[in-house]
Design a protein that fits this description.
single chain, Rossmann fold, 6-stranded parallel sheet, binds adenosine-5'-diphosphate, binds magnesium ion
């Protein structure tokens, strides 16, 4: 079994580094900071692990790439923890129910997602980073911001809201055109998701048309955010192996720093 926790390191105590016979590597400290006010009482200098974010639309291949990265990192002796949106023990279930019922105003839903993020940051990401883990995030604040921005949220309000977030060591955005995303999503689940198609925005009656238009808007917004947050755009239309090789090479460089 790989030393991987998909939920909380509260139940995944880190393997102690430096014990004889244990091949566990703890990276050297890497300068960390929060985007804004951060979490009170947390000193970023104590966070010795690495935070690696994989961003991209639904169907862009995030899960596929993260699964391979986890296997590779574990085989190199790096303990890993995975986080993602809607995975907090605090509010994930309630958030799912609220989305199914489609009962919340946009701002309330947005704050719900922010709560889910904050809970995972405080209780999963920060403890894991403190213990020297590699934290792999399947989406981060950028998806949350992009979703809110295409729905007309105020950018300064969002920046303040997510001032709590830690600046990742690397952010990879898997870029795949909406037409290919549709094909992959259909091949995988034979259906499009209401929210990933932006149906709440009333862009088109037809879910297929709505998906394309919504994903185009999201892609434009990501391009804009990329200029601010400086993440690495990865061509996600290549083979799974070619993409993974690029990610591994970039992460190797990061670990050597
Ligand atoms: N580079 C790729 N080329 C073609 N298909 C891919 C590629 N990466 C992933 N897929 C396929 O696309 C679908 C969505 O991939 P997945 O990793 O689940 O995406 P995400 O987690 O971003 O929604 C899956 O069926 C997967 O096998
Ligand atoms: Mg996925």
């Amino acid at each position: 079994m790989p030393r991987t926790a998909t939920h909380s390191p509260r139940c995944a105590a880190p393997a102690p580094a430096g014990l004889p016979g244990l091949n566990v590597r703890v990276p050297r400290p890497h300068p960390k900071r929060f985007y804004g006010h951060g979490i009170p009482g947390v000193d970023p200098a104590t966070l010795t692990g690495r935070l690696i974010v994989v961003e991209g639309a639904d169907g862009s291949g995030r899960s596929t790439q993260i699964a391979r990265l986890v296997q590779w990192l574990e085989s190199q002796g790096h303990p890993t923890v995975q986080v993602g949106l809607k995975r907090s023990t605090l509010v994930a279930e309630e958030l799912e129910r609220a989305q199914q019922g489609n009962i919340l105003s946009h701002t309330t839903l947005s704050l719900f997602y922010a709560t889910d993020f904050a809970d995972q940051l405080e209780n999963v990401m920060l403890p894991a980073l403190r213990a020297g883990f590699m934290v792999l995030a399947d989406r981060y604040i950028y998806t949350l911001m992009a979703r809110d921005l295409v729905r007309g949220s105020d950018e300064a309000w969002l920046r303040n809201l997510y001032g709590i977030a830690l600046v990742p060591d690397a952010v990879f955005y898997l870029e795949v055109p909406p037409e290919e995303l549709v094909q992959r999503t259909f091949a995988k689940s034979h259906a499009l998701d209401y929210w990933e198609s932006g149906m709440d925005l009333g862009l088109a009656r037809d879910m297929f048309d709505s998906f394309i238009r919504y994903q185009q808007l999201m892609a434009q917004t990501f391009r804009r955010l990329q200029k601010i947050y400086n993440f690495t755009i990865v061509d996600g239309t290549r083979s799974i192996e070619a993409i993974n090789a690029e990610l591994r090479q970039k992460i190797e460089k990061l670990l050597a720093e």
